[in-house]
């Protein structure tokens, strides 16, 4: 009895899985760009398996500064991420069936790890795109790099960029927050019972 | 004493000198500035399509600001974007008399559904070489032009029926049909000259035009026309002058009769006769030019026969209503009940009643025949006359609240009057000598109202002087209140005649931003830079070229010889809004090209001397626009310089 999960925790498993499943249907991240020539704005959306929005337009503009063009095929993440998330969901069902607190902690840890790795990976890509520029590019501004912000606002030459989670991203954050809170709750509950 | 007398004389002389005629200068009303001010970045309330008259184009203004938004070439070549110069657009201006690069564009009609503007197409007439053009309001491009056989001066056109069943084309200059020649005297005119009313059928899905049938009328000048609407739907009404049938000095000879006619045509009946096989096939020749929006290319088709109907044989399709003194405007009110004929030399405006007109036909209230066509008694069809409205009435528009607005050329004013009781309600001066006037939707069953625009014939002192040749002038008036109020003057280009206006909402959201490159089916398109090449076929050379910020591919071409016919097929690879590219080559004797994103356009160039010919993008497309350039090497005829081409580090491809 002592090692079993509370009703709240068991319910949270399904809520977290539901949150993660939405990522197949809605975009995860969103980068908005605006410039004097683009009053209507252009944007890019990152899904777990694709990159959508005005990618062609952004690629067309990037050639001035020698930034690599963005192609879906270049990102192995678009293959691994759906597999990892699907595995996570299955693991959640296993945790539910086994009904052990320890597994719940491991499961939560897995999601936190995935979140951290994804953000690091995203940052690395942005760094790569922003710094590895074609030396023959027509426009070269000494000392200028074009790394988009990981999250938040940044101005680069004539462009303003705003990077933030999209609906899927918020669902993911909800899942992370939920599982973290429930884990803490479970841990305290276990401590109380042991006393 | 003598001195004081002298001073008094001087003073009175000065006093006389300082008496002046009342100036025509007029200040617009107090809140006019606020009512026409469209703040930077804000949109106008209405699109105003204005005929270009002798420039053969259509201009688009925003209302109420009067800002010029666009010039749409229709019947005239336009070197600015290559219309009529590119290989793709040349066929648009082909006629049975060859390539005609100019016309006199007078009237416009927006397509209608249920008697309201539907924002799909705009029709334009060509007065000189009789033609009707169709502009697609998704792209603001001329997509179709049809020539009219048996016509001289397509003036009473392109007025439209309430579901765009037909666009009309009526002959202003009666001519012998089938391009016959004739002696020029009044007797020969009576014998040989005919007027025709052509009914151009419009496909309700595609907008494609075809001449469905022509009604051959006695020789006279069909001036303007309007379709019936509501109860009078099924009829078309034309004004006429020169029913005296004179061939010379019409100024005098066509102004003799007290009354000319409103010609009423029962087109529903005419349609039935055509279906019943009563129409005669006449051999003729005319051109029908259409733009294929997938290949971005126009093609001409020659049509060799036309169906004609003779109202002398088919007695119940045409009736004549006497109308005072060479009527010009012939306008039908929004209810479809009242037909207003404006005798341009008359001192009154007759208003005819459709119900009375139909009853007169039933009662056979005829005063006789004119060349075998029944003439209805004037009083039998008359609703009433507007007495002393002004001098030289021309055209009438409506606000949908029971009021009519008539333009007066001679007295230079707009007069507002009530249709029901024929009372003059208000009048405002125009600067100067108004021709057409336009209330937004004023020719439909549901006028938008709010404004009336005067399109004036004389400008004089309204703007800063620009030498002897001045801009034409339009004036915007508010008609919201009981009194008309001048809000704004704005200069126009060409000579505006009739115009149309439509709320921006009906058009702006359907506007195409660029063409999908994947749907480009142009036979010489290069869908990507890898598809670019140069192909020689005898002395014809096809250059498959692409344009994308900020280079042309290929940009170095060698192996061209003097006398070669070089076709530059330039595809704009951009897929973004407002990124056109231009193409021009040194010494090209035709024009440049403006190529919209996803489009392919072709410029023909025949070098006459050896040398190196720079070519470049003419539309400032990007930060590196100035670098968007290249060279064509032209060698003497018979030279052995091989054909090669390329851009940048790409190894030039060897000749095939």
Strand arrangement, largest sheet of chain A?
3-2-1-5-4
Overall shape of chain B: it is globular
How many discrete structural domains of chain B? 2
Low-confidence stretches of chain A: none
Secondary structure: helix percent of chain A: 40-55%
Give the largest chain-chain interface (CB within 8 Å).
Answer: A-B, 8 and 11 residues
CATH fold-type name of the largest domain in chain B: Methylamine Dehydrogenase, Chain H
Distance between the termini of chain B: 109 Å
If helices are DSSP runs of H or I spanning 4 or more residues, what is the number of helices of chain B? 7
Ranges of chain B where pLDDT stays below 50 over 5 or more residues in a row are 651-656
> Which value, in Å, is the CA radius of gyration of chain A?
21 Å
Q: Which structural class matches the secondary elements of chain A? A: alpha+beta
For the record, give the distance between the C-alpha atoms at the N and C termini of chain A, rounded to a whole number: 15 Å
Outline the biggest β-sheet of chain A.
Answer: 5 strands, antiparallel
CATH class of the largest domain in chain B: Mainly Beta
What percentage of residues of chain B falls in helices of 4 or more residues?
under 10%
Tally of DSSP β-strands of chain B: 46
Tell me the number of helical segments of chain A per DSSP (H or I, 4 or more residues long).
5
